[in-house]
Amino acid sequence: MISQRFTQISARRVFAQRPISLTSTRFSAPALITACKPLTQSRYRTIPASKTKSPGLLLTPIQPTDPIPHRPAATQTVPEDEAYSILKAQRAARPISPHLTIYQTQIPWTLSALNRITGLILSGGFYVFGAAYLVSPLLGWHLESSALAASFAELPTAVKLLLKFGVALPFTYHSWNGMRHLVWDSGRQFSNKMVVRSGQFVIGLTVVSSGALAVYGL
What we know:
The protein is mostly helical. Helix content is 63%, strand content 4%. The protein is elongated.
């Protein structure tokens, strides 16, 4: 420990008295290794005394031997149609955002979507029939109640049943589910368990009431 400390002090005195060039000056081995250890690890390499004509170690800078790999950018001019087809193929290979297919089918979000769909069917049907009824005298259409009833009576029983069930289904579902939403607005039946149970109850009421309306009057 004392000898190492003495070597460090000696090396500092040598450097302070005589500035040196690390690429060409020779020193005794202990002083050189102690003073220039960081340099030998990064930019310089040591040559043993057995390979030199004078005692001591010689520091020489390390020259890079391997060139840095590089590749020039290559461009190619293509027609506009071909460029568009390449772009279209690249867009087709892009990943798409997940949609409804990744979600598990559950009663809450399914019935919520059906509530909006049935509302759109009912409102759209009323608007379309109302507009057709207004322009029917101009176009010669017979959309009066008596004419519709007479045309419906001539249909087969199975067709009548399907038509009545198809018309009653969105109306009954939207009505029962609307009552369910009114209960939620009062702050009740809003737990996950009750939401699922009330949804199942609405589905049952919809099927039964639609079937009853379809059978009624046949």
